[in-house]
Amino acid sequence: MYSKTEVLLISPPFKGLLREPIGLYYLAGVLNSHGISTSILDFNIVRPTRSGFRRYLKDINPRIVGITSFTFNFSITQDIIKEIGRVDPKIFTVLGGVHASALPEEVMKATPALDYIIVGEGEFSFLELCKRIIEKNSIEDVKGLAFRRGENIVLNPPRELIQDLDELPFPDRGLLSFEKYPLAVVQTSRGCPYSCIFCNINKFYGMKIRLRDPKRVVDECSLLIERYGRERIFFFGDAFTFRPDWAEELCEEITRRGLKFSWGCETRVDNVTPSLLKNMKEAGCNEIQFGIDYGDEDVLHNLGKDVSISMIEDAVRWAKEAGFFVDAFFIFNVPGEDEETMERTYNLIQRVPISAIEINLLTPYPGTTLWDDPERFGMKIVEKNFDYYTTKKYVLENIDFPRAKFVPAFKKILKRLNLHSPSKEEPEIFKFLKRDVRPKTWEQEDTWIKRLLRI
Question: Are the C-beta atoms of 91 and 64 separated by less than 8 Å?
Fold first, then answer.
């Protein structure tokens, strides 16, 4: 057994819906199962002051700090890594996630205080790295690792993907105040067999979809219900109904055990049938999310989505007839767009019985086909500041439908859609041209003192 709190895992702050750090839960589960004591700090639950963070680090005295990062909060992650180095330069810092995996050499060069990057699926590469550090063995042949050798950045060969996801222990939710998260999330699969130009998930998890055993998934649901009192769960996987037989088996297992909870999922319009949706509804599913993306077939093809408008109409109608709340995601400022295609998309939104919509702007995330070659799609990246890569900012320009034409047309669409937010503020998408300040890394010292004194 290793000594107390060898590893601290950190989830940096981000804007938007509060979500469980499911990736860190899995890492913690693997590490703890191998006797490596692990803690998690989620800045979205407890935002420390700079001085409070320094005291916390000194108190728990970890040997290794692992951090996950999205593209849009990468600069915040850099702040945290820099602060760790100031507190104790002997702490090993390790970064993982899709952004660092897509740009390992660039990220290492831009972050001098960073020691290592885990590239790709991280559980077993991170486990091996932690063991090597703790046991003071060489790390130079760890698969999936990027590190410094003098002035050079070394990128080791990738680690093989985990073929059987059921090898992984359940996410370790006991390390955080789980009740503070509004929604429990259960991962059902990894990998995506599709080729959307704006998605980098298959670069991270591969193009082959790997599904967990339905019984194992329901075991985790049962644990969430019985231990944590959860009544609602969201199944996280890029195409929940990609294998209809798998989805049917999951529904049968929930029903067989008599578990009573509501759940939601996301999937594609070309992966559902009326009978499957009916069975999902009977098993407790009451919400389904479709990435519809656009209302013109040529534009959908440009985006790498080979679905038809009739498929979209059928899937939404079937879901509504089965009694689902139907969320739909749409993307604007896309290849092949003009005022006519925007109007067709608006008409589709009005025509199909969607319950709620979310409007996004096309964003060239590192690791996507769009990032690698935007000109191929008639697009030009006009903003390289990753703080604005939130899907709510104008960071790309369509060469054939430039900003001067797009902006007034898009504002007109937004006004006609009459979007609203659960809060009193207008939806973030209305601020798509605003260059606002990124989320703060640290809580203000005076704010922290006021909270402490309950002023």
Answer: yes
